[in-house]
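User: My collaborator sent over this chain with a note saying "see what the structure looks like." That's all I know about it. Can you take a look?
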Amino acid sequence: MLSLPPNTPTRALIDGVFVDAENAAVFDNIDPASGRTLNRIAACSPADVDKAVKAARKAFEAGVWSRLEPRERKRILLRFAALLEENAAELALLDSIDAGKPLSDCENLDLPDVVNNIRWYAEAIDKVFGKISPTGEANLGLIVREPAGVVGMVLPWNFPAATLSWKISPALAAGNSIVVKPAELASLSTIRIAALALEAGIPAGVFNVVPGLGHVAGKALGLHPDVDVLTFTGSTEIGRQFLRYAADSNLKKVVLECGGKSPQIVMADAADRIPAIAENLAGAAFWNGGQNCTCGSRILVQSSIRDAFVEALVKAAGAWTVGQPTDRDSKIGPLIEESALTRVLGAVEQARKDGARIVAGGRRALPETGGYFVEPTIIDDVAPHMAIARDEIFGPVVAVLSFDTEAEAVRLANDSAYGLAATVFSNDINVAVRMARQVQAGTVAVNGYGEGDITTPFGGYKTSGFGGYDKGLEAFDQYTQMKTIWISLS
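Assistant: Without extra context I'll predict from the sequence alone. Here is the result:
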């Protein structure tokens, strides 16, 4: 079994220096594949967060990054991307062991995405311009974008390096200083990436990391009066708390990307593609162990093809092997922590009590390892009112519902508190586009589960959050401040 690289950093990084948390406080970092302690991470206090914010503010005001020529920021970020690429194997291993993610996914999906994100926003630095407003000859109106200042970032554990790159890429490209609070359940890759940023030439104080517990370090960052923007990816419940923190402090801008219960709609006119669609939606449901905000955990199938589709889905689920995350043949690793195991198995049991039918999986896997593994699970005969059809499960569990008409499919799809993503499968492009326009979700894919790429904004409707466009040129909007300069000409 692969182990953590020697000398993996576990301390806070503040003003360019690795430091212990106040009073040398630490917390245990648990291996989700075995239930054993991997190492201990610095548990930052509000005082540590304050030091990091002050370092970020000092760097921002000094202009060592914020007022650096755009082409120079670009050069340094491209060097940063090159260093990330050189160290991709180490970073992939950190995420695999720390978060229980399949190593093959970290190597082939997450880390290439990290490198591409940094490069893409680096290249965008000198290609995004302000505007001149149309005025009379007596005036000149300039509409400019300036870096927001100090950006606080609170990260999730399910895609530690990838989500970090979504946030730091546009924030750093725009000239901000940042303070990152990584997920307490998966902090290691964030700390290592920050060290590589220093090595690339990003000045001390521009990129700070304060690992710690969410209700301590995360809360302190949300309440800090000198943080200008707070971006958060995680549960809707915690997203609400960050809105309260902003209201109780300095009305900082809050950017939220929260939970989801993404509907996957399969129309009967696509019956000739049932096996391929079933394989695609098995991936949508079980990729990353279902621990994904856009997880396709709710499949809506037109009644006339439901039985054939469920049969194909059960067959496709058989290819999703559960195993140790560092085994490159594993497609599903463990859930992130023991409480998640209890929650997911409890949701499956509740679905059974509610009258749904477990047609695949539904049990704990590999209990002898001590890890938090669950079999890929398919639940049929699900009614719209059941908890399994409404609650975000965050595990390898998918619920199958049926509908008769297009209008009913749209109604079921939108009958949710969430609105992050959706997919529509239809051989009729008119039907597909019409439904895509009616489904209330930030991203609607057609004829294949997907979240878009770096060029397309990613965010949600309803309680899935708002402003969380961590991709596309639109991401610059949330990390910059718009200013009008009005000049009277004589």
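A starting point for your reply to your collaborator: Residues 103-124 form the longest helix (22 residues).
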